């Protein structure tokens, strides 16, 4: 029986009396969890009870995990169960596009039409990339990599149950690394909520984002793969029990930059009905390259191709040049960005029939696809990188051309601004101000500006994830030596452990008491996310778990409220901040040439006595506010 989509799962009290248990099935990848009520004095009897319960759960489900495309095309997946004993089918390595090899290398991906019988029991290859983006020791993955994984609570065939809403996850990784399962470790509570989950690979780095007019390479192939995946979902997800008219696109980091690009791409119109954006925006300087010549020409000088045909025939590994341009990163507000990212493309100028416009121009108009949207940032975004910032580094990845003299003057003005704040007692050091500035410039302001722009035409919800629990993989596994435990707050990527299953799932199931707070926040967060996926509203009715009603940015309650997730869930209001006020003015000068000068900031720039006057509003009403 499929889970009830509207079941809230009961109140939090059930965690005090329940014990998570686990049993292995065949094949090895299959895992079954049962979530049972048992008196503590009977725990000694648990092993026998678990075997019987798990055996009953699995054998009571008559399912073959068979995907029937038509009479001649089928695929079989793997029967699994969540730790709450909800059965589901997992289909791994589902090809959604033709292999982008040979003549299809550096071309728009082509939708795959299933044929024959496919065994969906193991994931497909991840896309070609360095094993490590920093050390670049060797290349892993394959060029033939356009595969998806599908998890569905529909175990009895799509004709027997109502279609489920669909969540499509777009992974992050700076457009250079990653794969569909990156940083997610299961879909248990999403399956329990009656949601079909789709993860997938898309082309990365040079294969995904190289642009060359000389060799007729249009770029944006990673974005094109994402559109092809969405087209595949529209055509085939009903076979897996999903509803193609209720698709939510969720992206994290570079995945968030990607999905927000799709709001303005005509070829992606009407392929999704909701959007969730975690820590990213198309307006971020790391999500769009304005001037491609430097990257392209430097890379071609390293690669030294003579003809366009060479691009079709060279071995995959030859395109990755250790310590060369494929690892090149340019600094923007002190943070480095890889060279191969989305670029401008017009469908009438390129054979791929795809349109990507400059983001700062796109957001002056309503999005092509208007859908409810939920944006979320973590409390300590990029803290692992900000710790090393002691000066302002800047490469002008902006619409207008700047001379080196202008760049030098701008950098000098920033250092003067930071020195003034220290002199006024606003901060203890210039390094602290520069670190805050890097966070606003590269993450928070691009997200806030986009949110206020979208709120003019569609319900837009804003979230700050602060909870610093053990399910946060980035802070507690990736960067434990960079981030102090004494500095409270979730960092970039930690929120994924509270939407998908946590990376320490087995440990957390074994010792529930040790992770009681994490489980509670996990359940509450998934409730909000599941509601948004189903209804386009995270609290269509007051939450039974967290006792909140979350208003959108354009709601009647307040235009400046957001939800803060910590040990308690609270609706808060934005507060003023000097550094953000400053960057709003800088942003409008950099991107819109609105550079008025006044004498209130005591900063010299462009041989004028002072920095910028307050610019006109370009879609960001809350320009001088910060979350606290």
Question: What does this 3D model show about the protein?
Answer:
The chain has 628 residues and is of the alpha/beta class. The protein has helices at 46-59, 188-192, 205-209, 221-236, 254-262, 293-303, 308-313, 359-362, 383-386, 404-423, 430-454, 473-478, 505-510, 516-535, 578-592; strands spanning 18-24, 31-37, 66-70, 73-76, 78-81, 87-95, 116-119, 129-130, 139-140, 147-152, 164-170, 196-200, 242-252, 274-278, 329-332, 335-338, 373-378, 460-465, 561-565, 569-573, 575-576, 625-626. It has an eleven-stranded mixed beta sheet, with helices on both faces. Helix 10 (404-423) crosses helix 11 (430-454) and helix 11 (430-454) packs across helix 15 (578-592). The longest helix has 25 residues, at 430-454. Its EC number is 3.1.1.-. Residues 79-583 form the Carboxylesterase type B domain. Belongs to the type-B carboxylesterase/lipase family.
Short description:
It comes from Anopheles christyi. The protein is globular.
**Rg, Cα atoms, Å:** 25 Å
Distance between the termini: 44 Å
Strand elements, count: 22
Low-pLDDT ranges: 7-62, 597-628
Helix content: 25-40%
What is the CATH architecture assignment of the largest domain?
A: 3-Layer(aba) Sandwich
Count of helix runs: 15
Tell me the structural class: alpha/beta
In round numbers, the mean pLDDT is: 83
Identify the CATH class of the largest domain.
Answer: Alpha Beta
> CATH H level of the largest domain: which superfamily?
Alpha/Beta hydrolase fold, catalytic domain
CATH topology name of the largest domain: Rossmann fold
Q: Give the strand order of the largest sheet, numbering strands 1, 2, ... along the chain.
A: 5-6-10-12-11-13-14-17-18-19-20
The major beta sheet can be summarized as: 11 strands, mixed
As a percent range, the share of strand residues is 15-25%
Looking at the structure, what is the overall shape?
globular
Number of domains: 2
EC number: 3.1.1.-
Family: Belongs to the type-B carboxylesterase/lipase family.
Protein name: Carboxylic ester hydrolase
Organism: Anopheles christyi
């Amino acid at each position: 029986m499929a889970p009830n989509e509207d079941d809230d799962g009961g109140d939090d009290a059930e965690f005090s009396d329940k014990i998570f248990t686990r049993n292995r099935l065949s094949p090895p990848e299959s895992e079954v969890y049962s979530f049972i009520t048992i008196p503590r004095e009977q725990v000694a009897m648990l092993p026998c009870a678990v075997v019987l319960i798990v055996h009953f759960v699995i054998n009571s489900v008559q399912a073959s995990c068979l995907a029937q495309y038509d009479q001649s095309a089928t695929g079989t997946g793997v029967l699994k169960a969540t730790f709450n004993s909800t059965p589901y089918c997992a289909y791994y390595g589902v090809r959604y596009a033709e292999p982008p090899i040979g003549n299809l290398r550096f071309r728009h991906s082509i939708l795959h039409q299933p044929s024959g019988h496919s065994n969906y029991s193991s994931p497909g290859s991840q896309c070609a990339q360095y094993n490590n983006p920093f050390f670049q020791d060797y290349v892993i993955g394959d060029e033939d990599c356009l595969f998806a994984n599908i998890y569905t609570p529909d175990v009895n065939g799509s004709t027997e149950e109502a279609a489920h809403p669909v969540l499509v996850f777009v992974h992050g990784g700076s457009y250079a690394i990653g794969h569909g399962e990156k940083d997610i470790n299961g879909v248990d509570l999403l399956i329990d909520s009656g949601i079909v989950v789709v993860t997938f690979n898309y082309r990365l780095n040079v294969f995904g984002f190289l642009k060359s007019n000389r060799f007729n390479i249009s770029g944006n192939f990673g974005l094109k793969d994402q559109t092809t995946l969405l087209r595949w979902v529209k055509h085939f997800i009903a076979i897996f029990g999903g509803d193609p008219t209720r698709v939510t696109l969720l992206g994290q980091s570079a995945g968030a930059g990607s999905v927000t690009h799709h709001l303005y791409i005509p070829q992606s119109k009407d392929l999704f009905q909701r959007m969730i954006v975690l820590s990213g925006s198309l307006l971020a300087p790391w999500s769009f390259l304005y001037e491609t010549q430097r990257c392209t020409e430097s890379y071609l000088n390293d690669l030294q191709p003579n003809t366009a045909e060479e691009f079709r025939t060279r071995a995959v590994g030859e395109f990755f040049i250790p310590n060369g341009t494929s690892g090149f990163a340019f600094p923007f507000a002190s943070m480095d960005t890889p060279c191969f990212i989305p670029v401008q493309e017009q469908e009438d100028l390129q054979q791929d029939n795809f349109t990507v416009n400059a983001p700062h121009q796109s957001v002056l108009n309503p999005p092509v696809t208007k859908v409810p949207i939920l944006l979320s940032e973590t409390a300590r975004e990029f803290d692992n990188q900000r710790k090393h910032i002691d000066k302002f580094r800047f490469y002008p990845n902006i619409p207008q051309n700047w001379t080196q003299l202008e760049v030098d003057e701008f950098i000098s003005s920033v250092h003067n601004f930071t020195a003034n704040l220290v002199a006024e007692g606003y901060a203890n050091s210039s390094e602290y101000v520069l670190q805050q500035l890097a966070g606003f410039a590269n993450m928070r302001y691009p997200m806030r500006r986009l949110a206020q722009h979208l709120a003019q035409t569609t319900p837009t919800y804003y979230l700050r994830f602060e909870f610093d629990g053990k399910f946060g993989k980035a802070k507690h596994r990736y960067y434990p030596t960079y981030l102090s435990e004494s500095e409270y707050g979730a960092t970039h990527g930690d929120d994924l452990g509270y939407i998908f299953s946590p990376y320490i799932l087995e440990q957390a199931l074994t010792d529930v008491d040790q992770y009681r707070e994490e489980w509670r926040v996990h359940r509450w967060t998934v409730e909000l996310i599941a509601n948004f996926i189903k209804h386009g509203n995270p609290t269509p009715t007051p939450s039974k778990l967290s006792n909140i009603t979350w208003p959108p940015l354009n709601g009647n309650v307040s235009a400046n409220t957001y939800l803060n997730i910590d040990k308690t869930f609270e609706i808060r209001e934005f507060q003023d901040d000097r550094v953000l006020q400053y960057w709003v003015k800088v942003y409008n000068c950099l991107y819109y040439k609105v550079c008025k000068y006044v004498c209130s900031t005591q900063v010299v720039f462009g041989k004028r006595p002072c920095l910028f006057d307050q610019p006109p509003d370009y879609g960001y009403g809350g320009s001088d506010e910060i979350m606290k």
